[in-house]
């Protein structure tokens, strides 16, 4: 049987990459009757410095957003990672099977470690904890963005090593990627980079909580190129293509459809169309998130 497991870090505010790339896809899997677990990966957040009270508040904010996006506790399991001590326990068992060489070789680790003077061990072990998160529940399919594929390869390798050493205990999980462009939304300021919570430029991402005027502003300032036509060519025109992807996700359309509809529009005019589509998709989620957050405070 198929079991879907995924985690989201409560570090920084959710952006539309997290929403379209992971959360909304989970909600759709739930609608189709999949066996689904979503958790808030607060232990993973501790790999970078956190202010405890702030982190606790963010866990609740994230829970409110996930509920607002349509996760239904009657049909899926929504929980906080640190409330289940077995994540850390299984992590230790897997740590003894993981090799330093493999972990130190992962690009995300190398990039983050290179920017630090003192590298916490947790940063190196990050993918092992992520493996524990999935293996603990016998997870088979993990809906994530493309940035998590290598982490899931580590998880699958650890499941196999565990089977060799101790006997088969866990299925090897795999990343469940989307085919609609949602697994790789790009930065609005530099379309060669992914949209990221940790980017220092707030205009590089649209937050789930951004009001309509900010959505409009960020889309208007999005970096494109010097060709005015709207086309979908992710390799050669990543900026405009990213806007097309966002538009498609907001309206559940295919790139060909939206490109055809945009015929005759300049990219500047097209940006208004994209902003409007995104505003329509996000407004109800934002309103429900605010209501859920307020209810949580009472
Ligand atoms: P996190 O919190 O960085 O991101 C949450 C989810 O959003 C996806 N994502 C994107 N998708 C499309 N385009 C983007 N620009 C974009 N940016 C982020 C991520 O791929 C992710 O699916 N390590 C994980 C959290 C985690 C986890 C797990 C995931 C901990 N344990 C077990 C799956 C299974 C992370 O940092 O996600």
Automatic annotation (TrEMBL):
One of its GO terms (cellular component) is mitochondrial matrix. GO terms for molecular function: ATP binding; tryptophan-tRNA ligase activity. InterPro entries: aa-tRNA-synth_I_CS (IPR001412), aa-tRNA-synth_Ic (IPR002305), Rossmann-like_a/b/a_fold (IPR014729), Trp-tRNA-ligase (IPR002306), Trp-tRNA_synthetase (IPR050203). Keywords: Aminoacyl-tRNA synthetase, ATP-binding, Ligase, Nucleotide-binding, Protein biosynthesis. It is found in: Mitochondrion. The keyword Protein biosynthesis applies. The keyword Cell inner membrane does not apply. PROSITE patterns: AA_TRNA_LIGASE_I. SUPFAM superfamilies: Nucleotidylyl transferase. One of its GO terms (biological process) is mitochondrial tryptophanyl-tRNA aminoacylation. Pfam families: tRNA-synt_1b. Its EC number is 6.1.1.2. Belongs to the class-I aminoacyl-tRNA synthetase family. This is tryptophan--tRNA ligase.
């Amino acid at each position: 049987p198929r079991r879907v497991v995924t985690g989201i870090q409560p570090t920084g505010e959710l952006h539309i990459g997290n929403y379209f790339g992971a959360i909304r896809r989970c909600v759709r899997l739930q609608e189709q009757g999949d066996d689904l677990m979503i958790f808030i990966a607060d232990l993973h957040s501790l790999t970078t410095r956190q202010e405890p009270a702030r982190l606790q508040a963010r866990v609740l904010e994230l829970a409110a957003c996930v509920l607002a996006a349509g996760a239904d506790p009657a049909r899926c399991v929504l929980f906080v990672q640190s409330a289940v001590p077995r994540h850390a326990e299984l992590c230790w068992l897997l740590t003894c099977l993981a090799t330093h060489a493999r972990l130190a070789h992962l690009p995300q680790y190398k990039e983050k470690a290179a920017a630090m003077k003192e590298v916490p061990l947790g940063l190196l072990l990050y993918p092992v904890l992520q493996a524990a998160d999935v293996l603990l529940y016998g997870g088979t399919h993990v809906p994530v963005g493309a940035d998590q594929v290598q982490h899931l390869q580590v998880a699958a390798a650890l499941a196999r090593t565990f089977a060799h050493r101790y006997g088969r205990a866990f299925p090897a999980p795999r990343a469940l990627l989307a085919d609609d462009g949602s697994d790789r939304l790009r930065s609005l300021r530099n379309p060669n980079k992914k949209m990221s919570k940790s980017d220092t430029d707030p205009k590089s991402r649209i937050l789930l909580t951004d009001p309509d005027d900010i959505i409009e502003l960020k889309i208007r300032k999005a970096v494109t190129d010097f060709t005015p036509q709207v086309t979908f060519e992710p390799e050669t025109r990543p900026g405009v293509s990213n806007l097309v992807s966002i538009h498609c996700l907001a309206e559940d359309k295919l790139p060909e459809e939206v490109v055809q509809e945009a015929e005759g529009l300049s990219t500047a005019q097209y940006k208004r169309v994209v902003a409007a589509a995104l505003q329509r998709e996000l407004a109800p989620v934002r309103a429900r998130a605010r209501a859920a957050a307020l209810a949580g405070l009472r």
